């Protein structure tokens, strides 16, 4: 590196921890999670996912007429093109759900006449279409994999209720629909997390929204990001009940093994999203007449917090919530996408509106400059 290009003071932040990589008006995690100035606790208590999606995409909570128009546009766009459904029929049944979703999101671009049309308004229209189609895509793939035919979206059902109806083939109980709705609100947006950052990096090259969303899906798949909720429920099912929870946890400590669902790069003491979902877990578990999973979770959570100083993150209770809703484990991370597509899209729009390509530097740790020896002289 020449003196002209070498920074005057080289600093290294592993994982970019603590680095401010850009500005955003969409959400903040400082002083509690908020979306465009609204506390997540208030949104989860008093809003529906559709209102939150509108807020994140359009900048403010909708009026009644704005929400009605938004819901109408989303409902009209829920159908997935037949060639995309035909593709789902051809995918091997053992293909991971997130891999199939990644392919499906990318393929949807070929059937959107505005896929490569730039501009704020065009991006908003594409974002609403992706928001509408991704739940249909997820449900269709799941039903085909389990030997059932896809079910068309149901007019009149909310986003969360429609998702469950397309998966199970029947309208869900109101408590289940609301529980999923709240989980979607909590998963909608989270500032410059890994998948959002990946989406913004893709968008910063002036690539299109579908490419950026595909980058987001690929990043979210990882077990250290969206896939953590799938690993968390596997942990709880492996424990084998409250009587084994303490011994199992101490064994994990002794073997220095990671317990998924704990710790967070930002939330060092408390993940506010986990607190909210936990209430729904307790309520639904009680209505099911079986609190054993909750008891195991509490024992593990208390031990990890007391002895390792790590709080439960949102994936810990969401894993249980989705299990109580009867959802297959492989659907957990795709359902994260149902919500986060709104956040990714908002960030892509924001990036395009005021763009600067991401191009960080790396700290070189390889050999010093060497002289090339001709092939015949290397020995």
Write the layout of secondary structure elements.
Blueprint: E1 27-28, E2 34-35, E3 38-39, H1 40-46, H2 49-58, H3 64-76, H4 82-90, H5 97-108, H6 120-145, H7 159-168, H8 174-187, H9 194-204, H10 209-220, H11 228-239, H12 242-254, H13 272-288, H14 292-308, H15 315-324, H16 332-353
Antiparallel strand pairs: 1-2, 2-3
Any overview of this molecule?
By secondary structure, the chain is mainly α. The protein is 57% helix and 2% strand. The chain has 16 helices and 3 strands. It has a 3-stranded antiparallel beta sheet. The longest helix has 26 residues, at 120-145.
Give the overall shape, derived from the CA principal axes.
globular
Can you summarize the main beta sheet?
3 strands, antiparallel
What value does the Rg take, in angstroms? 22 Å
Task: Return the average pLDDT rounded to an integer.
Answer: 93
What is the strand tally?
Answer: 3
Indicate the proportion of strand residues: under 5%
Structural class: mainly alpha
Helix share, percent? 55-70%
Distance between the termini: 28 Å
Number of helices: 16
Order of helices and strands: EEEHHHHHHHHHHHHHHHH
Which blocks of ≥5 consecutive residues have pLDDT under 50? none
Strand order of the largest sheet: 1-2-3
């Amino acid at each position: 590196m020449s003196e002209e290009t070498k920074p005057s003071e080289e600093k290294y932040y592993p994982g970019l921890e603590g680095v401010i990589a850009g500005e955003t008006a969409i959400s903040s995690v400082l002083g509690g999670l908020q979306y465009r100035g609204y506390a997540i606790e208030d949104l989860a208590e008093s809003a529906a996912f559709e209102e939150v999606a509108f807020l994140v995409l359009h900048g403010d909570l909708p009026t009644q007429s704005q929400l009605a128009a938004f819901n109408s546009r989303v409902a009209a766009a829920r159908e997935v093109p037949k060639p995309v459904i035909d593709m789902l029929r051809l995918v091997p049944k053992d293909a991971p759900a997130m891999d199939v979703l990644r392919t499906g999101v990318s393929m949807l671009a070929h059937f959107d006449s505005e896929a490569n049309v730039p501009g704020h308004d065009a991006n908003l229209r594409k974002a609403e279409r992706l928001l509408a189609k991704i739940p249909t895509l997820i449900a269709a793939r799941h039903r085909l994999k389990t030997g059932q035919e896809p079910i068309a979206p149901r007019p009149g059902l909310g986003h969360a209720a429609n998702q469950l109806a397309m998966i199970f083939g029947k309208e869900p109980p109101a408590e289940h629909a609301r529980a999923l709705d709240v989980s979607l609100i909590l998963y909608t947006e989270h500032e410059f997390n890994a998948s959002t950052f990946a989406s913004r990096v893709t968008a910063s090259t002036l690539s299109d929204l579908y490419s950026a969303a595909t980058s987001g899906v690929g990043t979210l798949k990882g077990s250290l990001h969206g896939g953590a909720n799938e690993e968390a429920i596997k942990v709880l099912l492996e424990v084998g009940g409250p009587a084994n929870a303490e011994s199992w946890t101490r064994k994990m400590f002794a073997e220095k093994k990671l317990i998924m669902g704990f710790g967070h790069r930002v939330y060092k003491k408390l993940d506010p999203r986990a607190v909210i979902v936990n209430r729904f877990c307790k309520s639904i578990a009680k209505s099911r007449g079986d609190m054993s999973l909750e008891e195991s979770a509490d024992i593990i959570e208390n031990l990890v917090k007391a002895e390792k100083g790590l709080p439960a993150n949102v994936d810990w209770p969401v894993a249980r919530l989705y299990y109580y809703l009867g959802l297959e484990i492989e659907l957990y991370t795709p359902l994260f996408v149902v919500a986060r597509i709104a956040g990714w899209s908002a960030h892509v729009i924001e990036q395009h509106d005021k763009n600067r390509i991401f191009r960080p530097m790396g700290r070189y740790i390889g050999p010093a400059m060497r002289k090339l020896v001709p092939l015949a002289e290397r020995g």
